[in-house]
Amino acid sequence: MPQPTSQGTVLPLFTEPGGTPIRRVTTASAIYGRLHAAILSLEMKPGAALQEKRIAEEFGVSRTPVREALLRLAEAGLVEIFPQSGTFVARIPVSAIPEAVVIRKSLEGTTVEKATAVAEPKDIARLDAIIARQRVHAGLGETSAFHEQDEAFHEAISAIAGYPGIWALLKTVKLQIDRARRLTLPALGRMDSVIEEHVTIRDAIAVHDRDAAHAAMMHHLSAVIPDIDELRLLHPGFFR
After folding, report:
1. Would 216 disulfide with which of 12, 150, 200, 227, CB 3.0-4.6 Å?
2. Does the keyword DNA-binding apply (predicted)?
3. Three-state DSSP class for 87?
């Protein structure tokens, strides 16, 4: 929770975009959403201790909604609760990633093929707008904003295909992949590579080449899966 600075001042962890501390959050769902986002973005690191009292003070609520939010996060695999030891941000389970990769490839292979069959000019324009925003964020080194647009690109393909529910399902399946990927985005040139891969997918969809679109998506999804062994060496405390 709030971390002391070198001068000993305690700073709030949770703030609005303008820097204003979050106060008076009244529902477990709102607390869950904020903690969920902080864990996925690695704002809250794997293995970090979570204290109900501190979180309650930060959000200006009682401990009951905080406890409810933490239980939901534990069910999602993002928090670990040890009755005798405390509550912690879950470390990334290496064993869960291969299956999540298989599921993502299978489902996104389906959505990109369908999108390729039905895409209209307005759909291609939607993809172009997302890619343009990615270029801006990459140029500014804004990794979090870039990741959000990466998500938007894949969500858009599911929507174009008429399968928005597939993306909703995938968001729950790929949680651990996303946490690991956050460690790779600062890598030199990786954002530019993602953009190039997105452009290849977009171009295949635009000309209704189903085989090319599928192949491009499979290549992209293989490329964005992080090298877990390498990441474990760089961040040994983040994985289990």
Report:
1. 200
2. yes
3. strand
**Single pTM value for the model:** 0.78
Question: Residues 83, 134: one domain?
Answer: no
At 28, which CATH number?
1.10.10.10
pLDDT digit string (tens) for 94-129?
888 888 889 999 999 999 999 999 999 999 999 999
How far apart CA 103 and CA 97 sit, in angstroms, is 10
Q: Edge-to-edge, what's the strand order for the sheet holding 86-89?
A: 49-50, 86-89, 79-82
* 212 in the same domain as 100: yes
Structure tokens at 13: 């962890």
**Do 203 and 102 share a domain, yes or no?**
yes
Phi, psi of 15 (to 5 degrees): -135, 155
Distance CA 145, CA 162 (A): 26
